[in-house]
Amino acid sequence: YYNMENLVESWKQLIEVRKQTHSWDMDREVSKQDIDDIFSELHRRVPVKQNRVHYKISVLDYSDPEFRDMYYNFCVDRDNPNPQYNPQVLAPYLLVFSFRNPGEFDADFAVDRFGEYAKQLSCIETGLAADFIVHAAASRGLNCGFCRCYDDDFRPDQIASKLGIDSVHDIIVSMGIGYASEENKTLNPHTGKMVDSAHDQKWRTEPKPAMNDYIKFIE
Fold it and tell me: What helix, strand, coil percent values describe the chain, rounded to 5?
């Protein structure tokens, strides 16, 4: 039997050490075994609709630093008057979640199998998987950073081809994994230059609504 009191305390510690990360300590090597173990745990324990898996994860290290630099330049909000790059994706490991079509399934009686419904499932399953990964990483002393800003016009064919996906429009979210740094700059290994990675406090500048605005107990 598990000691529930210890489990709750461990969980409380885990959610406090997990944080959105923008700067990376590139002097600390991330264990490939840790990454493999996280994916093994993901595969074994994370729920997906009818075990079909409606998402794909493209995993990149720094075997191809030129592409990693290309992806960094792809991850930018061009609509912002001051375009904001996302150094979250410069982490030692980069995970790119994208839509996956699992094919025909006899027990699926939905009319719209691979249209909007399937993409909704893909986003739901990706959210479950991404949340699992950030906490699995935190339990190993690793941090993660999410990115959802993309310039779809920046070398879309090259990026899609490298990731093994049909289109950059299939990308759902990107996640960097590594050891966090407290610096306000982080290294781009391809250029050898430090880039801005300010630790903005979204909870101050873009606070959530009040909890009871979106959590309702129905009687």
Answer: 40, 20, 40
